[in-house]
Structures are given as structure tokens and as C-alpha cells.
Amino acid sequence: QVQLVESGGGLVQAGGSLRLSCAASGRTISRYAMAWIRQAPGKERDFVAATNWIGNNTPYADSVKGRFTISRDSAKNTLYLQMDSLQPEDTGVYYCAIRDTPSGGAYLRTNDYSYWGLGTHITVSS
Fold first, then answer.
1. Residue 103 above 90 pLDDT?
2. Are strands 45-51 and 115-116 parallel, antiparallel or unpaired?
């Protein structure tokens, strides 16, 4: 079973940047689609960005397109999310997730993913 641990969250001013990392253990992330999903205060979890196992298919939520970049390093068994031009509405808990079966696509629904980290908090002040 795979374990995921997110890091890199914190407090940042609007317009700033953060880079999240998600370190996987217990299994290689190669050949598995992954995603970043966030939960704003008082709201349900929403898809942010996903990547197929190769890293050449990376869909984004409309709200983060052009500002966030998802990437993966299979050698380090780690998923990343570079977040630029952060806005107060980006505040929330950010989770990384991975599918439980190998596949070629990128998946946009939260229930497409079987394993989740505990999340890292991001607060963007105005």
C-alpha cells in the first residue's frame, strides 16, 4: 500500500508563490496517475490538477490554469505543484492522491483516486 506525505504549505501573501511536494513510499508512482485536490474552508474537495503517469497529459481546473503547474519525478517518487500568482481563494488544504491501478490517462474526479495524503494547509492573505 502506498503512503503519501504532502509538504510545502504555509502562509503567503496574494501574488506570491509556493511549491508543494508529495513524497510517496511503499510503492513506485511510475505508471500511476496522480492529482492534487484541495478543500477550501467549508467546502467540498475539488480537483485542482492531474497528471498521467508519463507527465505529458496534465489537465487543470479552470480556476488555476496558467498559474499552477503539476509535475512528477519518478526517480524521486514525488509529485509537485508549483503555485504562482496565489490568490485568497486558493486558501485551503491541498491533498495529493494516486490511483490504485496503472493506467494511461489523467483523471479529473476526486473519486478516481484511492490513496490520499493527509494534506498540507495553504493560507493566502490579501
1. no
2. unpaired
